[in-house]
Specification:
Layout: E1 9-14, H1 21-33, E2 38-41, H2 53-63, E3 68-71, E4 74-75, H3 81-95, E5 101-104, H4 109-114, H5 122-140, E6 148-151, E7 156-160, E8 172-174, H6 179-188, E9 191-192, H7 201-217, E10 226-231, H8 246-258, E11 262-268, H9 272-297, H10 307-310, H11 324-329, H12 338-341, E12 353-355, H13 360-371, E13 377-380, E14 396-399, E15 406-410, E16 415-418, H14 424-431, E17 436-437, H15 448-454, H16 461-464, E18 471-477, E19 483-487, H17 492-501, E20 507-514, E21 516-517, E22 520-529, H18 533-545, E23 551-560, E24 563-572, H19 577-585, E25 593-602, H20 603-606, E26 621-627, H21 632-643, E27 647-654, E28 676-682, H22 687-694, H23 713-718, H24 721-734
Parallel strand pairs: 1-2, 1-11, 2-3, 4-5, 5-8, 8-9, 9-10, 10-11, 12-14, 13-14
Antiparallel strand pairs: 6-7, 15-16, 16-20, 17-21, 18-19, 18-20, 22-24, 22-25, 23-24, 23-27, 26-28, 27-28
Helix pairs in contact: 1-2, 3-5, 5-6, 6-7, 8-9, 18-21
């Protein structure tokens, strides 16, 4: 008998009666409200008195927010596995990762056959279930190359396209009792789901032994397999099993955990009072007793990784040294979620470990852990990471995506508290009902943390300024793991440095930013023929410089086949169309117009939420520059880069107006004279030629977020001499060991020694 150390979970097992269809859904909602973790439903498609279980699960998923849902168990002979796989993945994506999959090989064969299903013998049904699992997992393996092919006796898939992948690693639990089924659990399943009345503690031990032996034979750790148990009972005064008061239930269920390895109890009842007592009295008390028993026995707990995943661990990282909270959400190279977190928008990465802390305290703990490892460390806010510093090869990445809250903390002061893992589209959406906005890049999928520590060149820049210009305070984890507040009164030197060089100073866990009053804006898009690239760029620059500061425009030039296209995106900060239209119309004459549009829309529509997975595109290099004007030489240089195919993309961002109202020494971002920020993506194989040409740009500064070349001159271009020297002094105070050195490292000043 053994305890596999999984966390305890509790669920309900509900009857999907069609006579009162909303009652069972209400019970699912009630199960969530009282604190259960899982809601399951019988699945008998041939039973005319029952609702279709999959339809019911879909409806219940829309009515709930937290609980996981599954059939108990889903009748595979009545549900084609490839279609079931896509159904599960689709609903898992729609529900935010809350769909699990209990599977059964089939029973009640007369009824199945009457519905058009195929009658199978017990042995045939087990083999069919095994093939079905292969099909389901194959469909979910969206990252695998090539179409899915399964040449089974009962299920054949002949070149189906894979995907979509579910939102989370959907477990497959099998209802099983006989040795062949139990061996299949050990070979392929994530859980065993027997029911009370069919097993005792003794037969449970026998079943566990068969599963464990099969798992080991197939190179799996038996602890990978969760043991679940459908139970039934009533709260009364009897001494019989699960017929007494709550404390008796706890006493009777305890050995099923500590001796039998059961860690999920699913109660079959449609009585709300019984569910509530189970959730509120039995569950917490049993968790407490189990924790005490495990502590006394020294039982290992926490997440168990597959043997295949363990084989992909990288050298130099003490994976077993992670605390339980960090380990539970950590992602390793062999994990299913690894493709989702390994890379950034433009950069492919292969880190050895991605930590996903959920609180500032966990960020501090993750930092201390990462510092103790003999590998590189990167910090990611969850956005694009164009400069390539938010991932690495073989190192540790601290992904702050879970710190994504957006909270209006003071409407009168327009003060907004934003987590570094939020994306700017989510910020815009959250502020829209309050008539507020924050200038924040040009795309809703950009992460808050990187932008709000580097500068923040956004669509409202000329009217609002940089994002950092309105930063009023920040909570920061320092290199030594301590948490401090940085604002005008607390650590003002750190607060100054965070606004432009924050990635070198610490890990910001929340930003307090002053928003601006803004509802609707005029948003315009123009597409021009850019055959005369130099002429277009120079004219565009002149028009932008002479425009009212309410107008901020970005220009992108791309080569599409044999044609060069210039796309302008412009935002007038406000809904005054009478003033906006004449200012925008001036841009129409700069080159032949291919397409034009302008509309009054909420700012949140311009900066719409986007949560794409970032898959990276290795070898995508970028160069950046800040210039005062788009003069003839600069325009001709860019045109030449396109003509020689040195670059594939070029962008101009307008950064004058309110940005230049701020004194140069007010923030670590000291560039307050330039009108334009330039960036270009370099074609592979053209790096050397591009570098030589780019040096000819009359740059008076550099914006680090778009610069991928970690060359010696980058810092001196990004920070003027006085600013850089001041940053070195601040670095010497807050990060003297240069822990935060992966993002254009600023070496700390060495304190003078006294004789």
């Amino acid at each position: 008998m053994t305890d596999y150390g999984h966390d305890l979970r509790f669920g309900s097992f509900l009857t999907p009666r069609a006579q009162d269809p909303h009652h069972v859904v209400d019970l699912a909602v009630f199960s969530e409200r009282v604190g259960l973790d899982l809601v399951t439903f019988q699945d008998h498609p041939y039973q005319s008195a029952f609702l279709d279980t999959w339809t019911l699960i879909s409806w219940a998923a829309a009515r709930t927010e937290r609980v996981h849902l599954t059939g108990n168990v889903t009748n595979l002979p009545m549900r084609q596995p490839a279609v079931l796989a896509r159904s599960v993945a689709s609903l898992d994506l729609l529900s935010g990762g809350r769909i699990d999959l209990g599977l059964g090989a089939g029973a009640f064969w007369d009824a199945i056959e009457a519905m058009g299903g195929r009658r199978l013998s017990p042995g045939e049904s087990v083999r069919a279930l095994s093939e079905g699992i292969d099909v389901i997992r194959g469909v979910w393996a969206a990252d695998e190359r090539g179409p899915l092919r399964v040449d089974g006796t009962y299920y054949q898939v002949k070149g189906a396209k894979r995907g979509p992948a579910p939102a989370h690693d959907v477990p497959i639990w099998l209802g099983a009792y006989k040795p062949r089924m139990l061996r299949l659990v050990g070979e392929k399943a994530d859980g065993w789901l027997p029911s009370q009345g069919f097993v005792t503690l003794g037969t449970l031990a026998e079943g566990n032994a068969i599963i464990d032996e099969s798992a080991a034979r197939h190179g799996r750790d038996p602890r990978e397999i969760r043991r679940l148990f459908n139970i039934q009972g009533a709260f009364g005064t009897s001494a019989d099993f699960l017929q007494g008061p709550a404390e008796q239930w706890v006493e009777q269920l305890l050995p099923w955990v500590l001796e039998g390895g059961i860690t999920t109890f699913v109660l079959a009842t449609d009585d709300p009072a019984t569910l509530q007592t189970f959730a509120e009295d039995v569950a917490p008390a049993l968790r407490e007793e189990v924790a005490a028993g495990r502590a006394a026995a020294g039982t290992p707990t926490g997440r168990v990784r597959a043997a295949a995943a363990l084989a992909e661990r990288r050298a130099g990282i003490d994976y077993d040294g992670l605390s339980a909270p960090l380990a539970e959400r950590a992602v390793e190279p062999g994990d299913r979620d690894y493709p989702k977190v390994r890379s950034t928008y433009l950069w492919s990465g292969s880190p050895g470990l991605v930590l996903r802390p959920a609180t500032p305290q966990e960020v501090a703990e993750a930092l201390r852990y990462a510092r103790a490892q003999d590998v590189p460390m990167a910090v990611r806010s969850g956005g694009h990471g164009i400069s390539g510093r938010a991932t690495n090869d073989g190192g540790i990445v601290l992904d702050l995506g879970a710190l994504d809250a957006v909270e209006l903390i003071d409407r009168e002061r327009r003060l907004v508290r934003v987590g570094p893992g939020a994306r700017w589209g989510d910020v815009a959406t959250a502020l829209a009902p309050h008539g507020l906005a924050i200038s924040s890049g040009d795309f809703g999928g950009v992460g808050v943390g990187g932008l709000a520590t580097t500068g923040g060149q956004g669509f409202l820049g000329r009217s609002y300024g940089l994002t950092i210009d309105h930063l009023k305070g920040a909570d920061v984890v320092l290199a030594d793991g301590s948490l401090v507040r940085a604002d005008a009164e607390h650590h003002p030197d750190l607060f100054w440095a965070l606004r432009g060089a924050g990635a070198n100073m610490g890990i910001v866990t929340s930003f307090d930013i002053e928003a601006t009053e803004l509802g609707d804006v005029v948003f315009a898009q123009f597409a021009h023929d850019a055959t005369d690239t130099a002429g277009l760029l120079q004219t565009w620059g002149k028009e932008m410089e002479s425009s009212p500061r309410e107008l901020t425009a970005f220009l992108a030039v791309v080569q599409q086949g044999g044609r060069r296209i210039a796309q302008t995106y412009a935002v007038w900060a406000g809904d005054d169309a009478e003033r906006a239209v004449p200012a925008l119309e001036r841009f129409l004459s700069i080159a032949p117009v291919l397409q034009q549009s302008a509309q009054v829309v909420p700012y949140a529509a311009v900066m719409a939420p986007v949560h794409h997975q970032h898959d990276g595109q290795s070898l995508m290099r970028g160069r950046a520059a800040l210039v005062d004007h788009i003069d003839a030489d600069t325009a001709a240089l860019v045109a030449g880069l396109f003509d020689r195919r040195d670059i594939s993309f070029f962008q101009i961002r307008a950064v004058g107006g309110a940005i230049n109202d701020v004194p140069a020494d007010a923030t670590a971002y000291a560039h307050r004279t330039q009108n334009f920020s330039l960036s270009a993506l370099v074609r592979q194989g053209h790096e050397e030629q591009m570098a030589q040409e780019w040096e000819k740009v009359p740059a008076t500064g550099l914006y680090l977020s778009f610069e991928t070349h970690d060359h010696a001159a980058a810092l001196t271009k990004a920070f003027p001499p006085d600013t850089l020297e001041r940053l070195r002094r601040v670095k010497g105070v807050y990060d003297p060991q240069n822990v935060f050195r992966s993002n254009f490292p600023i070496g700390p000043a060495v304190a003078p020694t006294t004789a």
